[in-house]
Amino acid sequence: EPPPAGTTQEVAPGVKWLRMPLPMSLNHINLYLIDDGDGWYVIDTGIRGKESRDLWLQVIAQELDGKPLNAIICTHMHPDHTGQAGFLHSHCRIPLMMSFSEYYQARSMGPWSSEDNWPMQEYFERAGITQAELQALRDTRSQFTPEPEDHPLPGSFIRLVDGQSLQIGSHEWIVHTGCGHSPEHVCLYSRDLRVLLSGDQVLPVITSNVSVHPNEPFGNPMVGWLESLEKFRALIPNDTLVLPAHNMPFYRLHERLQQLIDHHEDRMLILEENCVTPSVAVDMLPLLFDRKLEGHTKIMALGECIAHLHCLMTRNRIERRLENGRYLYQSVDPTLSSRARPDSHEPPDHEPGFV
Questions:
Q1: Which of 12, 179, 196, 347 could join 224 in a cystine, given CB atoms 3.0 to 4.6 angstroms apart?
Q2: What is the side-by-side order of every strand in the sheet holding 171-178?
Q3: Contact, 242 vs 250, CB < 8 A?
Q4: CA angle at residue 225 from 247 to 279, to 5 degrees?
Q5: 42 touches 69 (CB < 8 A)
Q6: How far is CA 314 from CA 226, 279, 282, 318, 324, in A?
Q7: What is the DSSP letter of 279?
Q8: How would you classify the pairing of strands 40-43 and 69-73?
Q9: pTM of the complete model
């Protein structure tokens, strides 16, 4: 069972697990503490706001065995991972450690519905989003919008790089980075403990969102995502205990990595088969998602659909042309509509997710 909010549970020698609530359908984030001998390293921080801040004060007072926090490591830029970094940095006077790309991407993040941002508007128009939907997004408060009492991201950081070794307490932790969900996502692996702190890079049930965003409309994150999954399969043993940012800790890493690869390859084949007739990205969402999509959830689904399409374009399986202000995607091979898709390797409880 996961630990109740404000408490911790040891999941490996010197590694404590705690949870913080999230104000969304995915109602929690897993955070971790690593024993540093005379203190603790914090792995991810929870979302901004008073509720998470108060829970951190409770953890600091009751769950640290009388030892201080020594450092913060944020796996990546997203606000459920970095939201309390500024508070902990200021309250405990401890450094923030992140990869270069994640730190500066986090600093640049903010509301992305500004009316004078013509590239953003063009991105959505070319994908088939209506003006009414865009206006509704502008009127909706984003999880990226800070509260007045929130602490900003620290103004300095210690850079983490792929392959770097960190000595935390009595164990060595190796930094392994991936991309796709975010630009330079940090994971930590201990050979001694056979433990991987995977953040959002590998999750056991839901799939991390891999999206093309309006601030990089021609990005190709799916290529990097699939390469990262293969990289982790080569570097991390299958019997590793994986401690993810969402859902439950799990084993059988290699099987999960294959499920994630199969999931995205299957989605790309679905799109390829259904683009025999030229199609707009927004009209393809029902092919990939069997739930009602609206607001920011629809935008995240759209970004992931476009990521799959861009990957297919790289493979020369899909062509794109601009017509009447919208991008039309069409399969290169017109015989695809008669082909059967291969069996999927997804488990019964697999859910596309947005984290």
A1: 179
A2: 165-168, 171-178, 185-190, 195-199, 241-244
A3: yes
A4: 100
A5: yes
A6: 13, 18, 20, 8, 24
A7: B
A8: parallel
A9: 0.91
